[in-house]
Amino acid sequence: MEKAIIGREKEKRDLKKYISSEQSEFIAIYGRRRVGKTFLVKELLDGSFTFRMTGKENARLGDQLLNFSYALDDFFHDDDIPKNWTEAFRQLSKDIEKLGEGTKIIFIDELPALEHFWNDWAYYRNDIKLIVCGSATSWMLKKLINARGGLHNRVTHKMLISPFCLEEMEQYFHSKGFNYERPEMIDCYMAVGGVAYYLSLFDRDKSVAENINSLCFTRGGELTDEFNKLYNSLFKKAENHIAVINALSSARKGMTRLELISKAKLSNNGNLTTLLEELETCEFIRSYRPFGKEKKDKMFQLTDQFSLFYLHFMKTECDYGKNYWLQKIGEPDYIAWSGYAFETVCLHHIDQIINALGINGSYYSPCSWSYRPSEAVKNDPEADEDLKTGGQIDLLIDRKDKTISICEMKYSEGEYEITKAYANRVEQRLRTFRKVTNTKKSFSKVYVTPFGLYNNMYARKVNKQITADDLFKKGL
């Protein structure tokens, strides 16, 4: 019987559809560690499994086979211990063949040995629903989803389980009896993102800041050693993945591939391509093409909230002082981080921004733009003054209706006030942008802030305000 599951509406619909189909299905479910993959399958299909087995992390073959035999005994009273994986899955096949008609749901959690079982037996039936779930992204992508060997094109459906969005985070906290308001939940998302396990560690009798202090800055806190565990559980030989994450953390708008290679000291080869694909698949980074640039100029940007938080504060904070995080709030490095982190929250909620703009029915392309004048331009007395000044736009949405939404994302603890000086800087950036790109499109000025804008003459010139309430609505 299905239990209450927070959010995951699309994932639940898809999984139910696959389970009720009239053919055998091979479903690969993947995503970052502790995002709720196993929880989703177990809660949705509890009591319906024909066979379920969870592999042991970093266990020897003999221990894995013994674990498999325990599962066979639990479901079929078959206590023989197989000598190898071929024999293990042959035993499973024989046990299932003894059953009557009806759908057989097989759930394999974290087990890298399936080729013979699917290709030589399950594939030729119409009643097998094989669900494979794993956090070891390198293995899931290479051996299942993008397999080139015996399992090439055998996965019938792949499902990426992402962290919660703000709407799902709110549902989760309310279901657990928390009294957090939306501004505090945004602060929570800025630090740890929407990872279900991280949220499950929060104590409802503490504020968000108190919970972060306890989990991240107290000796023995549950998240103090999470960063290395996270990457090493997902990727084989994770040193290079971590090197990329470290490099990208120093570049707010991201890096080109060549810049990343130089900063992380990595080789420019196919292994790097695979590594970047793995990080992007797990939603630690995003890639995008800046406005007006070619495909070769693609940028890579770190967007994982917890990694940003860890590298900004936790990595160098070895002296776990009392109430470290509570004292850090409001200091210059906190203010700098909060601006960056809020931008990243917005990037995770592009769909909500699109909905708020009312353009979800048309083509659009979100990206950013930056410009640095050459020394020759800066020193040329006849050069245009706007072109002598560099500039960047955090987020622009290039639309098919001959309009570009220019988005300013600003974190504040109250209404954000656009000053005359800042309004002038924005206007200068827009002039530079138009001259550098030669675009003929109209500009629509958008501000994304938690509480909206302070009502003054500059705010009244803004075309659209997007607030926290908009970010908490459903996406596309």
Q: Percentage of helical residues?
A: 40-55%
Overall outline: elongated
The beta-strand count equals: 13
Give the helix tally.
22
Evaluate the radius of gyration: 25 Å
Overall pLDDT metric: 90
User: Strands across the major sheet, in which order?
Assistant: 2-3-4-1-5
The main pleated sheet reads as: 5 strands, parallel
Low-confidence parts = none
Class by alpha and beta content: alpha/beta
Distance between the termini: 29 Å
Kindly estimate the percentage of residues that lie in beta strands according to DSSP: 15-25%
Describe the protein's architecture and organization.
By secondary structure, this protein is of the alpha/beta class. It has 22 helices and 13 strands. Strand 11, helix 21 (420-437) and strand 12 form a beta-alpha-beta unit. Helix 3 runs parallel beside helix 4, helix 8 crosses helix 15 (305-314) and helix 8 (182-192) packs across helix 17. The model has no long low-confidence stretch (mean pLDDT 90).
